[in-house]
Amino acid sequence: SKAKCTVRPERASIVGTEWLSNELQIVEVPCWRANFNVGSVLFAVPVGRPGDAQVLMLEDLKGHQIKSAYSVASPSFDPKTRTLSSFHKRRDAGDCGTIAEWKWTGWYFQLLYVWSKTQCDGEPFEWDNRFSWQVFPKQQQQP
For 73-107, what is each residue's pLDDT tens digit? Predict the structure, then answer.
C-alpha cells in the first residue's frame, strides 16, 4: 500500500466519517502515532460498496515542491466547504508546527494553504492568526 501504517490492521479503527458527495463517504483510519500527533489515512468509500474503498491522495508541501501524500496529521473535514485541515504540532503546547488546508476536487485533496511556525516561543500558533506564517502559496512581498 502507498499509505505506510505503523498500526497493525487489526488494531485500526474508523474514527470518523463524513460525506464527500451523495455517493461517497470519507473514512478516517488512524495509522501512526508520534509524540504530539496522530496521523490518519483517509479512504473514499462508495455507499454500500466498502470493498471498493480507495486510499485518498493529498498534495503535500515537501521542501519547496508539492508531492503526493497518503496520510495526514490530526485531520478534520468540513463537509459544507469540502475542505480538509491538519495541525501537525512540533510540541505539546501547540505553539509551533504546521497547519495545512486542502480542497476536495472530486478525485483528491488539492493543497490550498500551508502555514508554518518554526519558533516554539510559548506564544499561541492559533488558527485565527495563521496568515502571518503562510508559506504556501508564497505571499507577495509588499513594495
Answer: 989 899 889 999 999 998 888 899 999 999 999 88
